[in-house]
Specification:
Protein name: DUF2937 family protein
Strand content: under 5%
Pfam families: DUF2937 (PF11157)
Keywords: Membrane, Transmembrane, Transmembrane helix
InterPro entries: DUF2937
Transmembrane segments: 7-27, 135-160
Helix content: over 70%
Distance between the termini: 36 Å
Length: 174
């Protein structure tokens, strides 16, 4: 039975290792997706920024206000749409800055505080790769050790709980 448990632990470790080496690839694909969206968003906003530069000394908020104070519903709606573009662009730029803060910030950003639609899109379109660079190896080993420790803790807890409910046979003789 001990041998089977050893093989089971080894299997858990290898599976966790394989999951862990995927983490840097996933983070890299998230980064590429985020950068592409920042670029696209900035490009979509550039024509309006040019108008703001030309007529409002570069203040796009004044351009938006100009649109929003117009009584024509089409122009008014255009102001709302420009405002949405500006808001989205700022959200993406802030996410990009948070992503690039430090060595760990990409992982923190992707797994704790992502733009959920980008993470979902990357997850949906993720292509599994095994990149054996330093980050992938470290992530794989850490994931393997942590999941193996959790597995052993879980099994140990089950064994302990089982021992509480299974009473030893009574050795009382009459």
């Amino acid at each position: 039975m001990a041998k089977i448990f050893d093989y089971l632990k080894l299997t858990v470790f290898v599976c966790a290792l394989l999951i862990g080496v995927q983490v840097p690839g996933f983070v890299e694909q998230y980064k590429q997706n985020l950068n592409a969206r920042v670029s696209e968003s900035s490009q979509s906003l550039s024509a309006f920024q040019n108008d703001a530069d030309k007529y409002f000394a570069g203040d796009i908020n004044k351009l938006i206000k100009h649109y929003q104070t117009n009584k024509d519903p089409i122009i008014l709606s255009g102001g709302d749409n420009i405002n949405k573009l500006v808001t989205r662009n700022q959200q993406l730029i802030n996410a990009q800055a948070a992503f690039n803060q430090s060595i760990l910030s990409p992982y923190i950003h992707v797994f704790i505080n992502p733009i959920t639609e980008i993470r979902a899109d990357v997850w949906h379109n993720y292509s599994y790769v095994v990149v054996l660079n330093e980050a992938a190896i470290v992530a794989g080993v850490v994931c393997g050790i942590v999941l193996l420790a959790l597995f052993e803790l879980f099994i140990g807890t089950l064994v302990y709980m089982g021992s509480l409910f299974i009473s030893p046979k009574s050795t009382t003789t009459w």
